[in-house]
Specification:
globular; mainly alpha; 22 helices
């Protein structure tokens, strides 16, 4: 349902005024020099993102323009952030995901899992597991859109409202957690990958999966437990007939699946070769970075013919299809890159870190991880996960630098925390889609989401505490 015009005008006006007030307050608090202007720009942008007074992508573009107006960056530096190579990893992976959606490959996968569901718990495990697996490689919203209709079918067949609430939340939250597994699963991951590379602590695609996948799987299992207890989900039959098998793969599905597999192999091969000591691995990593792999695999789709005999010529992906990808997220990420660069260049992130160390008393590595993960988690309930990571990742780097602790665990904690947002319908796109089904109330989402936030926070901290030393990511 669209927002009434008076309410929209009020929100825009309140948001803009609040952003100006926040900018003035941040400028008054900051130390002299460029910190004044950058603190004001950060506060102004953050409040606009939090209040959604303007579209998030427009706010990002405004931040780029204001950085030039304020003298913080030259036009080349400011607009260069919108051409950062990592943005093209988004573009390529979004195009592949669009082909997977367009040709029904994601729906085939989800329906295949749903046919194996047995009983109510089986339905929860199958639908949330399908959303989890899809969102490793596509956007969380796309994964939810594919799987949610299957969950609704099971919910309506059961006739049990509690079961329906548990199912739609399971799909939405499963999609949010699946994105933790890979660098391309959700925008905050790429924000962290780039920030770590710029700070001299690069993390490869495979290395990220070594950390992200176990944590995401542990979160998924914890979610099953929380939902089973909260909605008293037990055994019992669900009478919905499973969707019929789709038959042979279409030419479009073959094309989309091939491009997807080539991208995955290209993303993981250099890291695996390097791990195994294969000669030439370092050169391959330079010539085939992840963004180049994504664009090569996506380009394949524009030349792959998928028409059958007697059909009009067409390709697996046309430009009109590609134009539907989420360009707003790409622009939002570019604005976030610029703010992060400026925070590092001017020393603002380090100054914020020192102030937070002094104010909180957190100086040990794991106290810092606990602090930034918790702060990022809370922020994610009120802002998009990309905006949360844009604000928290530079802070995690600055805090680690100020305390003299390894940055990797803190950045990972801030990034994973930014992908929570389980409490409110407005926290994430999957949450909004689950709420729109009418199967779950705001009260149920908030009540269960608080519990899962707390459980997930403990899982993330515990798993990072185990995995970082095990994988040599704690600086030792």
């Amino acid at each position: 349902m669209s927002e009434p015009a008076p309410a929209q005008a009020t929100r825009v006006g309140v948001g803009v005024v609040a952003a100006v007030v926040a900018a003035a307050g941040a400028a008054a608090w900051a130390s002299p020099g460029p910190h004044v202007r950058l603190s004001a720009l950060f506060a102004f942008t953050a409040v606009l993102w939090l209040t959604e007074a303007l579209p998030a992508a427009v706010t990002a573009l405004l931040a780029v323009a204001l950085s030039v107006v304020s003298g913080l960056a030259t036009p080349k530096e400011a607009f260069g952030a919108l051409g950062n190579p990592v943005l093209y990893l988004f573009v390529g992976s979004f195009m592949i995901a669009e082909a997977i959606r367009l040709h029904g490959l994601g729906a085939r996968f989800a329906e295949g899992l749903s046919r194996r569901a047995r009983g109510r718990l089986g339905g929860l495990l199958a639908t949330s597991g399908a959303a989890f697996a899809l969102s490793m490689w596509t956007s969380n919203a796309a994964a939810t859109a594919v799987v949610l209709p299957l969950g609704l079918t099971l919910a309506q067949a059961s006739g049990d409202r509690r079961y329906g609430a548990g199912l739609v939340l399971g799909v939405a939250w499963g999609a949010s957690m699946g994105g933790l597994c890979t660098p391309v699963g959700t925008p905050p991951n790429l924000i962290a990958v780039r920030a770590l590379a710029d700070a001299g602590h690069p993390i490869s695609f495979g290395r990220w999966m070594q950390v992200g996948t176990p944590i995401a799987v542990a979160m998924l299992v914890a979610m099953w437990g929380v939902l089973a207890v909260a909605f008293r989900l037990r055994g019992g039959d669900v009478t919905a007939a499973p969707p019929p098998p789709r038959g042979r793969w279409s030419r479009g599905e073959v094309a989309a699946g091939t491009a997807f597999l080539l991208a995955v192999v290209g993303w993981m091969a250099p890291g695996l070769m390097e791990l195994l000591g294969v000669p030439g691995a370092a050169g391959l990593k330079v010539r085939l970075p992840e963004e180049v792999v994504a664009l090569l695999a996506a380009a394949l789709l524009f030349g792959w013919p998928v028409q059958g005999p007697g059909e009009a010529p067409r390709r697996a992906l046309a430009w009109m299809d590609a134009a539907r990808i989420d360009w707003g997220t790409v622009l939002l990420f570019g604005g976030g890159i610029l703010l992060g660069d400026l925070a590092q260049k001017t020393g603002l992130a380090d100054a914020w870190g020192r102030a937070l160390v002094a104010g909180s008393g957190a100086s040990s590595p794991w106290a810092i991880v606990a602090l930034v993960t918790g702060a990022s988690l809370v922020l994610s309930e009120f802002a998009s996960n990309t905006a949360s990571a844009t604000l928290m990742v530079p802070l995690a780097l600055g805090l680690s630098s100020a305390a003299g602790t390894p940055p990797l665990p803190a950045v990972l904690g801030a990034t994973l925390g930014a992908s929570f947002g389980f409490m409110m319908p407005v926290s994430t796109a999957p949450n909004a889609m689950a709420y729109a089904t009418g199967q779950v109330s705001v009260r149920e989402m908030v009540k269960t989401g608080i519990v899962f936030d707390l459980v997930g926070y403990a899982v993330v901290l515990g798993m990072l505490r185990v995995l970082c030393p095990l994988l040599g990511l704690d600086g030792r």
